Structure formats: structure tokens, C-alpha cells
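User: Okay, second chain of the day. Same drill as before: sequence in, C-alpha cells out.
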Amino acid sequence: MPDQTKGAQAQGALSGVRVIDLTQFVLGPYATQTLGDLGADVIKIEEPTGDRQRTNGKAPSSKTMGPTFVALNRNKRSVALDLKSEAGRRALRRLIKTADIFIHNMRPEAVARLGFSYQDVVQMKPDIVYVEAMGYASEGPYAGRQAFDDLIQSASGAAGLAQLVDPEEPLKFVPSIIADKTCGLFAAIACLAALRHKEQTGEGQYVEVPMLETFTGFIMAEHLYGETYVPATGRFGHTTTITPYRKPLKTKDGWLMVMPANQVQAAKYLELGGIPDAYTSERFLSSKGAPARVAVYNEMLAEATATRTTAEWMDLCAANSVPAMVANAARDILDDPQLKQTLFEERVHETQGTYRAMKPGLRFAKTPATIRREPPDVGRDTLEVLSELGEDGEEAALAHGAQTQ
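Assistant: Same drill. C-alpha cells below.
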């Protein structure tokens, strides 16, 4: 695919779309960063003290540019407004009138107290796309309760997935803020769908993104399985996903995930690992019943894999059309040759120095997803953005709680 980002930089697909972002933590910032990567002008509204995620982790020279914040907030302009003041609320009302999307993950009663509920905002901008991320759908018995990633992983059944593999396992979380990030992607999808409707009809709308319902639908898409039909036609849990044999295998010097697509590929892999004629061997044929043969097959896979290095297997599997991939330990991704070329990029932040960015994964030939702005220090763009509204320096300073001289 031709690289459209070189030379004169092409515009992202959402160029011209303005997003007013009142989100904090992970879900909302991940959603709005995605929109920003696609070209939207994302204006991040922060308290003068900043998004609370800013203090998560250590930065080189600031207490408000923690690594998690940096990973979730590129391609945004930070405007620091004291929304407890009339000056701050007035500035936000003026910004909303210029926007296409207003998104927040505050509790409904909190945003209403500030005067920015959907009913309030639609009076300011009738065609606004108003996106509200919340923990639980508004019509259910959990409506209004607080929500964090661990709470959603718990209620969605995600914490119980390990028990589908081994019933003796305790409930435990996926070691990722996966519910927030997944729902952040759904929030971005919701924005795009509502923008499409607005383009066709001229109408804005209210959009609700409930975490529990959205994430449960995502995480359980394959695991509903036998319970899909009523009455059930089988067990709960996707059989090939929850097998205990689904795991990387140890090589001479690392780990490999091998997934032969058929018996021919599997036999070739085992032969390359020193086990010829595996399916006609006494060891395999003497095993009684399908479960026993599956166990023997997986034992042979492990034995074969241990005979070569990971690099040797990568080359052999590519040459013999056997699906396989290096299994990286978490930190090893920094040295993975594919990811070093396509994902990681060292960039220079205006106040923090060199940092490692993960470039957008999506590739567009005509409207590239790019990093145009480094993650902002608190209020970096306040004067710039408010001056676009015609605010003078004193009005802008009052709006974000600063003192004028």
C-alpha cells in the first residue's frame, strides 16, 4: 500500500469533525484518542489540576504526564476550564456550539449539576452527537451505580473465564484494563455511526454506551455457545477456546505458538521436530479414544517444539506453510522485529523529552491515521482554543481558573 503520510500530509478521514471531550481515566480517553488518530479535532476539557489519570506512573520531569496518560491522549488539545465557575461553564458552552460530538463519562447527576446534560447541550447545539459512557444500561437495576474495569470484568463473567478451562481455578481478572478499552472502541464506533446519521439527516442524537452490556456482549460472543439456543444444545463455553492445550510451547530458547490447520501440516511439523510418521506410530494408534489421542498429539507437539530454537521454527514453519508465531513475553514486544518496524516510534515531547509512542494500527491509503499532536500538558492549548472563539486573554484566564495580572 502506498504511504500517503509522506510529503504533504494527507488529512485523516475525520478531518473537520470537532469533539468536545469531558472524559477521564481510560474508556473515554481511548475512544477520543481513536477519533483523534482518524483526524478529528479533539478538545480535551480538563480541570485546572488535570485528568486524574495524569498521575498514574512516573514522568521524566512532571507529575502530570504519567505514562498511562501519554499512551491515551495524543492528538488532543488540552483546555483547562474550571467548570465550577461561571466563566469556565460559559467558555464550554461556546465551545459546544462549534462541536459535532460531545462525549463524557461523568455520572449523569454530576454532569447535570454543571449544566451539561443532554437536555442542556441539545439546547446549545441542536444537531450535537451526545455520547454518554456509563457503567450499566439506564433501564436496568444496576443503573447509576459506579463502574470501574474490575467491577465490569466481575459482572460480565470475564473474571470467571479461567474456570471454563479449569473449574478449580479462582475467579481472576484478565491482566489488562480490557473492559474500559473495549468499551472505548465501541464508543468510537458509536460516534462514527451517529455522525453518519447526522450526515444523512442533519439530526444529532443521544448515544448511551453502557460498559456492562457492551463488554459482556464482546467477551461472551463465542462463549454463549451451547446456550445460544433455548433449550440449550450444548455446554456453555467455546470448546476450542477453553481447551487446556491452548498455550504456547517451549522451544530451546523461548516460546512458540504453533497452529497446524490440518493433519498434513501437523505431521510435517512433528517430522521437522524429529517425530516422523506421528499418526501411524504405535504411540498414537495405541491410545484409546479421542481424548487420549488428543493428549498424545499435544505431548508430541511439545516434544517436537523443544528440539529447535524459536528462530529456527519461525523459518521452518514459514518454509513449510505451517501457521506459527513467536510467543513474546510481555516486555519482549519492544524487540519484536515486526512491531519495531510497524508499531513503535520514538518521538520528542515538548516538555518530557523522548518517549515511545505506539502508532495507530489502522492503515488508510487516502486518509491516514497519524500522530499529529503529542499528548498535552495540562491546559497547553487553552489560550489557543479560546482565542479561536474570540476570547481575550483575561476571559481565557478566568475560564481556566488562572489569575490575570
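The longest helix spans residues 178-201.

User: Thanks, on to the next one.
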